[in-house]
C-alpha cells in the first residue's frame, strides 16, 4: 500500500530525540508522504524546515484556534510570506474550538474568517479544525467560502448533519485513530459509512490520538500508525484495504497538489 498521513505535527518537541527513527518507521509502514500542519508562526516555520529536510514531507502554515488570542495582522503577514516556499501546500490548521476556550470566541471567529480570506487570496487548500462550535464554524465558513475552493475538516468528529454540510461545500473529511477506539469511536464508525470514498483522508494528528491497539503500548502517536486507521476504515466500509488506500492516496495528492497521482 501507498499511504499519506494527511495531518501530523512532527514539529512537536516529543519527536526531538528520535525524529529520524519515527520517519524511518513510517516508511516501513508504507507511509510515503506526510503533511506537517502548522499551528502558529514558530510551528509553521519548523514544519517548513522539516519539509525541506525530509523527502515526502510537505507543510502548511496557519494559526490554531487555541492561539487566536495571540494572532494579529503582522503574524498573518509573516505566515503569508512563508507561503513563497514551494514546500507549503496548504493554509491551516485554523478554525474554531469552543471546547476548551483557550481563546475568546470573538478572537477565534475573527481570525478564522481572516485566514479563510488569505487562503483564497493565495489559492491554497485549507486545513480546518472544528470542535463544539455549535454551528458557528459552518456559518462562518459558508459566508466566506467560494466555488472551486478546496479544504479538509481534519479529525472529523461531528454529527451526520454536519458531515452533510461539509460534503455539500465540497470539503474532504479527515479521519484519525479515534475510529479505532472501542467506545469513543462508536459514533464515528457509524458516520464514516456515509462518506464517499473520494472525500476521505486518513491522518494521525500525531503525537495525539494514538489508534488502538497501538495506544496500549505507545503514549505518543506517530505517522506510521496511520496504517491502522486505514485498515479500520476499510473494515468498517467493507472495502478491500488496497483499493481504499489507493483512493485515499489519490484524494490527498489532489487536495494538496502533491506529485504522485
What descriptors fit this protein?
261 residues, alpha/beta, TIM Barrel, 9 helices
Describe the protein in words:
The chain has helices at residues 19-28, 41-53, 73-82, 105-122, 136-144, 160-168, 186-192, 226-237, 241-256; strands at 3-8, 31-36, 57-61, 88-97, 126-131, 151-153, 172-175, 200-202. It is α/β, with parallel strands linked by helices. The chain has one domain: Metal-dependent hydrolases (TIM Barrel), CATH 3.20.20. The chain has an 8-stranded parallel beta sheet. The protein is globular and about 45 Å long. The chain starts with a strand and ends in a 5-residue tail after the last helix.
How does the overall form come out from the CA principal axes? globular
Q: In angstroms, what separates the terminal alpha carbons?
A: 14 Å
The fraction of residues assigned to DSSP E strands is 15-25%
Helix-strand sequence? EHEHEHEHEHEHEHEHH
Helix content, binned percent: 25-40%
What CATH architecture would you give? Alpha-Beta Barrel
CATH superfamily: Metal-dependent hydrolases
The CATH C-level name is Alpha Beta
Report Rg. 17 Å
Low-pLDDT ranges: none
Q: Let me know the average pLDDT.
A: 97
Largest sheet: 8 strands, parallel
CATH topology: TIM Barrel
